[in-house]
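Checklist before submission:
- one chain only
- standard amino acids only
- sequence pasted in full

Submission:
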Amino acid sequence: MKTIVQIAIITITAFLSSAAFAASVLIDFEGQELMNPSVDSEIYDSGFYFESLPDGTGLAIGEDIQGNATKAAAFCPDCTMRMVQTNGEKFDLDSFDLLTTSGGLSFSLTGHFAGGGTVNLLLDSSAYSSWEGVNLDNQWNNLVAVDFGPEANHAFGSAVDNIAVSNVVPIPAAVWLFSSALAGLGWLRRKQPIKNQ
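Returned file contents:
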């Protein structure tokens, strides 16, 4: 019995430690059909939903955009693209690739926190006239939404690709139930008198 309890404890510990780490997801839009930005557009990819603000039009999936041989999400000059996880859970934004069509204006990235509040980043669009990566720090953790787009009153086209996110992975309720049952069995075992033969 002691060996079974030890194996169970090791198994539970291994499971809980693996569940505590976030799962990384790379959103590359490769499974998407090409889309025209003039129609109502929304994109579902890798457990995330993308929509165009303010009116739902202007989002597209393009291919071979300025030297990028793969598909990417592009949005119209006066639109913002919002990204949320389809299950409503929090996520961490780690990095993405960016392309803009205007130099000298600012590209805006806004993260919305689960408890309220935002984090903002303004990028000089001239640095992203060809595909460049944007790496983010831990200020971009525990988000419920991210807005990509030109700074207010600026209008230029943009495209994003290879969005790297980490999801917060909740521990399933079954693990807690199993753990409490195992602890109860251990408690009962200690309460039983030892029989002499």
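Reviewer check: Residues 93 and 140 are 6 Å apart (CA to CA).
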